[in-house]
Design goal:
The chain has about 100 residues and is mainly alpha-helical. It has 2 domains: about 1-60, Helix Hairpins, CATH 1.10.287; about 65-95, no CATH class. Helices cover about 50% and strands about 5% of the residues. The protein has 3 helices and 2 strands, in the order ααββα. The chain has helices at about 5-30, 40-50, 80-90; strands at about 75, 80. A two-stranded antiparallel sheet has the order 1-2. It is elongated, with a radius of gyration of 20 Å. The two termini are about 30 Å apart. The model has no long low-confidence stretch (mean pLDDT about 90).
Length: about 100
Amino acid sequence: MAKKGKIEQNKHRRELVDKYAAKRAALKAITKNADAPMEERFRAQLALADLPRNGSKVRLRNRCEVTGRPRAYYRKLKMSRIALRELGNNGQIPGLVKSSW
């Protein structure tokens, strides 16, 4: 189980990403527009730097929703391989069977 602080920190980051996504996208579009005047692009870059760092999508970490484990994460199931195996062995994931030959 991951530390609760790390799980909460990641939740807080997700909220900030959702909050600033539209504003960040608009400012990035201005900075990448080659037709816009240099001063306007520079102002947009400064405004982008004023936004909180944790509002950037890059700073998110995929974590297992069951245990909070950051590694060996399956995006489709939103859980780690260890949690997947435990729930699968208990029969709590429909359609998942342990292979044997």
